[in-house]
Amino acid sequence: MKEKIITKASDMFLKLGFKSITMDDIASEMCISKKTIYKFFSNKELLIRESTTHIHKELHETINSVLKMNHTAIEENFKIRKMFREMFKSSVDSSSIYQLKKHYPEVYEKVMLREINECSMWFRENILKGIENGLYRPDLDVDIYVKFYYTLIFNINENTSSEKEAQKLELEALEYHTRAMATPTGIIELEKHLLNPNT
Questions:
Q1: What CA–CA distance (Å, rounded) separates 160 from 44?
Q2: For the chain, how many structural domains are there in total?
Q3: 94 in a domain, yes or no?
Q4: Looking at the domain assignment, is residue 40 inside a domain?
Q5: Strand, coil or helix: what is 91?
Q6: Do the domain assignments include residue 125?
Q7: What is the pLDDT of residues 1-54, one digit of tens each?
Q8: How far, in Å, CA of 171 to CA of 197, rounded?
Q9: CATH number of the domain within which 63 lies
Q10: pTM of structure
Q11: What Å distances lie between residue 147 and 46, 113, 169, 177, CA to CA?
């Protein structure tokens, strides 16, 4: 039952936001009593902590599933962006990450430490793959570009309250990041994906 609660709560938090969803909402959605939830989680913050761990696991399973498809470095970034967009598809306009930072800052800080470490590793592998593919310039300072990109992406997500606006800015950041690194061949591939960024 505990895992079912975490799974349902995670889904609701992503769709409607960490602040918006109450324990009553989760109980009602699952057709259980609120008392059942409190048997496993003494307060909402504990449930949010467990849910962010669950979401983190899902995120990285999503990334790994794309990496196994062996796309080019540029296509890989667009595919991951598409999968994230579907995963974070909110039925309200308020970004769940923005809500987490604003209303549960301690949980947010722990989430960000974990995400920055793992995303930095993924960004690094993507850049090295792009250099190997001839899509990114071989003279790049990989550490600097990794830092540039995660600073851009995390800054957008934690400071943009609108999910729709955050997704628009993320696409702009992806284009900016890719153009800064790309070879002429990489620019051609980037332009191809920008024509249909959501496919």
A1: 24
A2: 1
A3: yes
A4: no
A5: coil
A6: yes
A7: 999 999 999 999 988 889 889 999 999 999 999 999 999 999 999 999 999 999
A8: 8
A9: 1.10.357.10
A10: 0.84
A11: 31, 14, 18, 11
Is 29 among the domain residues? no
Amino acid at 18: F
Alpha-carbon separation of residue 52 from 5, 44, 76, 121, 187 (angstroms): 13, 12, 24, 20, 36
Other C-beta atoms closer than 10 Å to the C-beta of 184 total 9
- Cβ atoms of residues 182 and 135 within 8 Å: yes
Residue 188 in tokens = 């051609």
Q: What's the rounded Cα separation, in Å, for the pair 197 and 188?
A: 14
- Rounded to whole angstroms, the Cα distance separating 140 from 76 reads 19
- Taking only the tens place, the pLDDT of each residue in 80-93 is 888 877 777 665 66
CA distances from 159 to 46, 51, 101, 156, 171 (A): 24, 21, 9, 6, 16
